[in-house]
Amino acid sequence: MTVTIGINGFGRIGRSITRIVAASPDPGISIAAVNDVASTEKMAYGLRRDSIRGAFPGTAIARADHLVVNDHAIRAFHHERPERIPWADAGVDVVIEATGRFRAGTTARTHITHGGARKVVISASADEPDAFLVYGANHDTYDSDQHDVVSPGSCGVNALTVMAKVLLDRFGLRAVNSTVVLATQGWQKPQDSVVGTSRDDPRLGRATGDSIIPHNFVVGDLVRVALPEIGEMRYSYYVVPTPIGSLAELSGQTGRAVSVEEVNRAMAEAAAGPLRGVLAYDPDPTVSIDVKNNPASCLFDPSGTQTTADGGVKVRGWFDNEWGFSNRLLDIARLVGERSPVASRRVSWSIA
Ligand SMILES: NC(=O)c1ccc[n+]([C@@H]2O[C@H](COP(=O)([O-])OP(=O)(O)OC[C@H]3O[C@@H](n4cnc5c(N)ncnc54)[C@H](O)[C@@H]3O)[C@@H](O)[C@H]2O)c1
């Protein structure tokens, strides 16, 4: 089955999704429409030239009201307000809301109530979606009758949650404390822009390249929302001046004393088994840039594992904050699209 999606916001995440779909021989996803306040010419240019991913391995041009990617025509819209985007006219079933502007469940829902889409996936830790679904941890709780607007949390939440899932299932994890160190984000500014920032915390308006910037509110306790059995959760989040590649560390208390080897074996087995594709395992000494283009939510780093005699455990994973998360957005879009299929609507990824 092919799920037909539309993408609102053709920035880092929107373009990563498009690159992933274009590169896959059988993605199970068809991009029927994209919307951005930018022109179609800029959308095409942003695909062709990318400082992090390199040149687009194919063609991307603007033609009339379409973005044409490798001869596939994607309808391009340019609406600032989500309720104006006519998704249904383009045959879109699932909208990936990736502007960063419409993270509230109520606003994102206008893609359904006004635009005619059937489901929405918000590409961030949203405010009051119908469900938080972390792929590999709790995505099987998705209920198509109850959940129209879903959020997979953030890239950091996904990296932390898959490690927590393994520790919980194998050793009984609780009382989690986590740290995420995130690569530079597009909304940051190269010079201080404290007054101009839309973020509540003034530190998030400070110059990107100069500082390690605390960004505490982002993770929330979403790991606990996906895995309520872990009980209490504390977290720290920092944004650092690296272009791509981020770090997640998680510590907690297990039900018994465990060895480093036991923990690493559990992660390796999960990466080769039930969490294949979502959790990866690599014993080679890793730094953040090494994770670039890795599609997993988390590349587990066994050199980071520490344990204590009273059952304390600490683990480390890396993640490509754009690429891994965009792959999970597509997994969730497939999930919500396939569980609520539309028989009458045809896929409109047409040959230009
Ligand atoms: N980049 C990452 O590492 C990353 C990882 C996980 C989650 N996210 C989340 O995904 C979302 C998007 O992030 P991004 O990095 O792609 O941001 P970005 O700034 O690169 O892209 C946002 C895009 O939305 C467009 N836009 C802005 N306002 C709009 C509007 N009103 N209507 C239509 N288009 C509009 C912009 O022109 C831009 O192209 C954010 O919520 C972010 O927190 C980002």
From TrEMBL:
Family annotation (SUPFAM superfamilies): Glyceraldehyde-3-phosphate dehydrogenase-like, C-terminal domain (SSF55347), NAD(P)-binding Rossmann-fold domains (SSF51735)
Name of the protein in its database record: Glyceraldehyde 3-phosphate dehydrogenase
InterPro entries documented for this protein: GlycerAld/Erythrose_P_DH, GlycerAld_3-P_DH_cat, GlycerAld_3-P_DH_NAD(P)-bd, NAD(P)-bd_dom_sf
Organism superkingdom: Bacteria
Pfam families recorded: Gp_dh_C, Gp_dh_N
UniProt-listed PANTHER family: GLYCERALDEHYDE-3-PHOSPHATE DEHYDROGENASE 2 (PTHR43148)
Glyceraldehyde 3-phosphate dehydrogenase NAD(P) binding domain mapped to chain residues: 3-155
Source species: Paractinoplanes atraurantiacus
